[in-house]
Design goal:
The chain has 155 residues and is an alpha+beta fold. The chain is built from three helices and six strands.
Amino acid sequence: MLRFHKLAAIFGLGLSLFSTTVFAQQAEADKVKAALEGFNAALSSLDIAKMDAVWAHDPDAILVNPRDKTVTVGWDAIKKNWESTFSIWTELKVSKKSGNVHVSGNTAWATGVAEVIGKTKGGDAVNSPTFETDIFEKRGDKWLLVSHSAWRIPQ
């Protein structure tokens, strides 16, 4: 009977540690989702200051937008890319339709499909689903983008 109680106690401790880990990972995944929502809000607002707040200002950060012909590397170049991108839009709305978030330590990645709806300054209406991959690093208690890649899905 004593063995049973010891096994039950060990099992209970293991289950408790597992539950704590699962809840902690889910909490971090929720923070990454919030960071992703902040990124989409920055895009939708066409506000470079909001974009500035969601990115790591690293020399090796990476950006590839659907209209890009090359990979943009480094925060200074990324900021210029966003300024150029924002300059063509009068309206832009970006929202996630589906996606997955995975957290591993201080790194997280999100993949999924986003819906891009907007109007260019030239008057063209855009309604385009894109496949996106975002990589985040945890800095202190904040998740920051270190890589964003988006590709138009052929229709």
